[in-house]
## 1
Amino acid sequence: MLKIALAQADFQVGHITANHDRILKLIRQARDEQGVDLLVLPELALTGYPPEDLVLRSGFMRRTEETLADITDQVRGIDVIIGHPRRHGEQRYNSVSWLRDGQVLGTYDKWDLPNYAVFDERRYFVPGTEPLVIEVAGVRVGVLICEDTWTPEAARAAREAGAQLLVSANASPYYRRKHLDRAEVLKSRHAETGLALIYLNCVGGQDELVFDGHSLAIDATGRLSEPAPLCEEALLRVDFDPDTGAFGYRDWPAGQTEDLPVIYAVLKRGLADYVRKNKFSSVVFGLSGGIDSALTAALAADALGPDNVLAVMLPSRHTSELSLILASEQINCLGLKFHNLSIEPIYQAMTTQLAEPFAGRPENFTEENLQARARGNLIMALSNKFGHLPLATGNKSELATGYSTIYGDMCGGFSPIKDVLKTLVYELAEWRNRQGEAIPQGVIERPPSAELAPDQLDQDKLPPYVVLDEIISRYVERDEPISEIVAAGIDEATVRRVAGMVLAAEYKRRQGAPGPRITRKAFGRDRRYPITSGWRDSGGLGG
């Protein structure tokens, strides 16, 4: 039996010293406590993933090489597969090295470099061309790196080089129901090669990406494991029998796979890691009595603890008594710290100052935006004075259509529900309340409103959210043309209006805060549209 430990762990981007120490600790734990033959670490574990332009700096690469040499020298009594960037002359590779008894037995360079969605690896690396198969405890093990597992060539080459088992080191970011896609990929590679395959994924939030763990394995008979723990670090233990191709799972807790709890856990991990890794300990945001800030409050309290969450009620002349009551109920329910700061004096001062240049002009969205920006100023002032990370509370439906105020409610260092459509906001709120009340039911039941004008409702300016979110899902996330969306039964005028709003709001989104990605196409590094553009989708008939 080949005894294997898999380090489903969080390695921080750029923190080479901390990653070095963590790797050595995991080596000792796997060798001395679990007694395994082989420890597998994730893709680019030494530098964290993705290191982006850090790998273009010679000092960063030199430090990486020195640290890898130090780790190699300390490896004794166990084999270690470790991910790291590698230089060879002027070229760089995304690599793993196989370490044994102070030596590098071999190095494998990633074959398939993803250059789509959030990935940009061809900017930094060149592809490898040779398989790596090493024997350990009598088993010939072939190595893959992440995208190599999603295409057939590298796995086939490893089998042809004599591999009896494939091990894939991954930094695979989450999108909704991705564990199902990973399972299908493993089934395909098994069908093509007949080999058992272990798929190790890392954990942790990194800017807009969240690595969800959920490591997998498929044995030589095609039997899939349960996904490993979700968004949790674990030193997984699995034994491989080369005679039968079967796995024995010694320490492999099953992870959550139900849709809503997975999404909530990913959002929570993304928020907690962004706060912690950027040296904050607390957050501040405006709590309005509406659903978006209510879900943000629940996420923040769950991720950071209520003592580290400052909710600020920022009423104006248009704020209803119900909003104040519901916000107060949630503050008491979650045990949050809070302030109640009226924006009315600021708003009056701003309108007075602008009275002369605005003379003769009717009130419009300008006055509405002044209120949002007064709130943004107060949130930023509390952030500056006390060191809280400010959170923006907008959802994907608002950001898609520009139904948000730049320098107002978009103010923030992080946007926890940025990739969550409004309909999903409600689903997550209701799910969270089933685990224990965190959001007043009155917040969930009331019609959404920005409360920037008398009797204002979101649906006065936007289509019903069920319709709007379907259009956004198709137009933004699936890149469907207007003609195809209309053919699916949605009113053409509505589709055209929403598409126009999406294109017009690009400049706002470009200046917005990052937030955790949960869909296949999030705003940010995932969707790169020009701000200045003459393109208007005319239904597939040209620009």
## 2
Amino acid sequence: MKLDRRSLLGLLGAGAATPAVAQAAHSGQVAFLHGVASGDPDHHSAVFWTRVTPADPSAGEIPVVLEVAKDAGFTDMVRRTADLTARAERDFTVKHDLHGRGLEPGHEYFYRFIARGVTSPVGRVRTLPLGATPQVNLAVVSCQLYPGGLFNAYEAISQLDRLDAVVHLGDYIYEYGAAPNDYGMNTGAPLGRSPLPPHEIVSLADYRTRHAQYKTDPDLQAAHARAAFICVWDDHEVANDTWMRGAENHQPATEGDFAARKAAALRAYFEWMPIREAKAGAMKEAINRSFHFGDLASLHMVETRLLARVEQMEFADIPKTADGRPDLDAFEAQRQDPSRDLLGEPQRRWLGEAMRQSKAAGRPWQILGNQVIMARVKGPNIEQMVPPAQLAQMVSGLPDDVRPQVETAIQLFRLGLPFNLDSWDGYPAGRERLYETMKQAGVEPIVLAGDSHAFWVNELYDNGGERRAVEFGTSAISSPSPGDHVGGLPLGLALQAANPEVKFCDQSAKGYVLLTLERDQAVGELRTVSTILAKPYENRTLKRYRLARTETGLGPLEDVTAPA
């Protein structure tokens, strides 16, 4: 998500890591400048990743060894893989999917890489459990704009005592450049966090350079070293507001063929991220997959950008009636068009069967890792939030090129239009088909969402008024939040008041969601950092919600936040 014209609100706003991570291992020949990472854990394996930086960029093949042990001192070694190679054709990244039954289910292991006598930082990974599983802990993250601020939330995650995996819901990188008016540079320039390369990324070399820069951040390295990441992309891994055949932030006349740009972006993504490679003959876009945590839970990750998403609607393109008023009936007819979808029928069938099979296996919790907010959310009426004189003063102080858009937005807010057409609200027919899939599978899942740069706790209802799921939306690690742009207006409270599905919303805080699953309950904690502009910072729990698991399904959401 970027605060742009598709979000009504967008019109209103025109370190210290662990020592092993903070100090890059290097010699005169090679260096481990980008840390280590693991991902996509299963019961006996995981994907292990690093990048070997050669002193000579024209270096050929570099032999690499992967060691996995039960202890941090590597005295109890369980696997040693000595036939890995860092090659220029993959930007000297190394990724190994540890096959076989060398690792035991539900155990934590330590790993490291060695190249030409240089040893990498040490990482930790926990394999997925089998059988009886009393508890699962997942940190849910999204939206890390490098110039947007420090990655303090990742440092906080790296210090968690118990963590099974980090669930990343997308916007791992952003594509924008480093010009003074580019996205996030109002904070990036003072912090010395300008993106590389300094222009908008389009080519394979551009995307590789941007991924490389992000992975030099010590807090991000610390989080990757702490636990396995389970990732999906959202839009900015390619370009803002990506859909099947294009993106809002892609101009073919100057940036070439979108398919070529997408191919470059996905190649760099698979090189630089600890995610399993697409199988031979499979579409690279199809990264939907499931993870089973013993007898307790299944996590189903879906793809909502490249496989089936039709183009986003535009508030600027609302039809007009003969007398020049917004034609809301025509707009709503277009929004409700049955062809509007995010998942597509093949992925929806896969998800329904995966949830059905997991329930049949006796797992009480079905978790849906989804990129964008699923709840029905209409925009708040700004005119009811602030006195007329204050609103007029705010609008009059805006730049001339922004003021007309803001005035239009205020009118649209009054009409109760959806808050963000890039979310599921822009695809209500597809959402209803998904709810029917949940019903047919006999499950009431917990939906996880990112993209919005805000915290959400929502209850999701179908058109018949039946609750189909509960949603926890995580805020950004560092990307600008809607509340950052509106002068302290209580947007979260306004959205709660205007939308029955929204139980809690904070449009300013940064951080992550910690989801703890047990047999009879799930607890979602909205964890925040006090600042992304400096260190030190303070951690706190903004809200804590409990969801009981009963014999007949999910119980009510309970706010169990401890008193301040």
## 3
Amino acid sequence: MPFRFHPGPRDAETRARRGTLETPHGRVETPAFMPVGTRASVTGLTPADVREAGAEVILGNTYHLLLRPGPEAFRALGGIHRFMRWDGPILTDSGGFQIFSLSHDRVITEAGARFRSYVDGRPQLLTPESSIAMQTAIGSDVMMVLDVCLPSTAEAAEIRAAMERTHRWALRSLAARTNPEQALFAIVQGGLDPALRAASAGFLTQHPFDGFAIGGLAVGDTRAERGEVVARAAELLPLDRPRYLMGVGTPPDLLEAIGHGVDMFDCILPTTLAWQGTAFTSTGRVRLTRTEHRLSELPLDAACGCDTCRGWSRAYLHHLFKCREPLGPRLVSVHNLRHYLDLMRGARAAIEAGRYGAYQRERLEALDRHEHDRSARPPGRRRLPEPPPPTPAAPPAEAPRDGARFHLVVTSQGAPAVRDSESGEVMHPVIGPAVEAERLYVAQSRLRERLAEPGPPLVLLDVGLGAGSNALAAIRAAGAVPPGGRGLEIVSFERDLGALGLATSDEGAARLGLGPEDLDAARALLRDGAWGSARVRWRIVLGDLLETLPRQDLRAEVIFWDPFSPRANPGLWTLGAFAAAWARSGPRCALYTYSTATATRSALLLAGFHVGVGDPSGPKEQTTAAATDPALLARPLDARWLARLERSSAPFPPDAPPDALARVRAHPQFSARREEEVA
């Protein structure tokens, strides 16, 4: 059966529309969400699970399937449908986004993209023709052209050059297609420039592609910018062809894009966040790792009819995540997919009834308000009150009363520190905040020496603000640099400002030894969300780091990674967290953390960093240092550490890919050494 798209009813208030795709492996009702089956598997779920959730089409990843199992396997085994036992339609991407994510290890020319395989380290060349050949071997129902994907915030000249090359590659992809029953979609690029997006749509729609995708979004743009691009691009695409928004996104993203006339979506969030303990529900996100769910007999989502919500309580799911039982991520993945697919079912019904506008408003009101609320309320927090007008002298924060979350304590070596009663953890638990902030972070990062050099302001990411010790130590270091050096921009990330409030109280300041200048800066940060001097700018970003960090338009030179431990805050010690840090790192960025866990170091390696042994701190004989440039590491991990990794009982973070060991072995940090030894 050849590919066909049949447009259906349209909503009167919005541009939302119904439709049906006909493919060789069945029909797909649109708007449709495609679960991501990167390696011919939707992580942790069987095809029956995915079908039961309501999926009609899934997405496979050409880049990963090219490297393993490879085209020969698909040709020998009868294609991907038989291989993975999924009898419905499959769309395969081209590999363009994955190549983009290998910015440290790939070269793009007019011929294609050269990179090294993470499986065996061998050089690879992905061209428009070889991408189509691979997708033909896979046997997908819909293929994507190979495109050049850049951050939407790249320079205008780069965006234009990438768009024009994408157009040339699209025509080469079209010429390379050999099976007319496999549909081929082109990809509209152009960054955030309306003129470039119009030019891209105008060029591609002149050619006989079966559908059109909107690409290059959710890679540095804001939600408002993304919405404007989607609205404009969708309006420029033909009514008789499907429109596909690539890699986006959250439930509010989908609802808004449907209103602009988009038909197809994919995103890794439902399964990726499930493995981190986050569920999407009809009333917003639920983070099952939080203590508040420990004794809860409530279902995950009372409005959901999936097996997870019918069968298990939040308390049981919380228990599974605390024990790191893989059943927890599996059950939440089942629910999250059902939530996304129910959202699509509701949208289709609302369009047919002529009330999609009302449906969209109702769902946005109930869902993750922090993602579309004008107040920019951080995830999981109550709406913040309007800040008071600035005053010459801000009143000090009150000391905590009994029952407060944060308390002042004394460490085992007699240093004052702050304890979080919710997690049970002490900030800088041995030698205290002042000493550890200086030794582990400021001195080890050579912050004073870096600031003394000429150049633009140094961007420092302070992950885990806590009581402000690391950021204040950095501010003091900047104050000691002679005139003529660089400025310092500190961006701190935190979910709860209670610890900083305690530290800036009269008792907290006295016990922790904060001076008048420390207090002025910290109290201004609490009051206004930012503080600045002639040399330093300091601001706070509130919310879940995995959601807030990707939205920041910056390139860090130094990262202080100091959240609570993996036991208390597992989400910030994952591959996903360090990949977000990598994406916001400059070419000579260094990251420092107290954790020496094997899983932490392997997560950093998998994210792209080079990793080494950090300086000792207090009783710690070593810490961990990581860098985008290996020359910044004094003691890189070597073959002995790799041997320990292979023997470890907990070698990888919970979101590591199945081939994590092969990827670490193939990391340039180790593969380059092996090549030197062989030579």
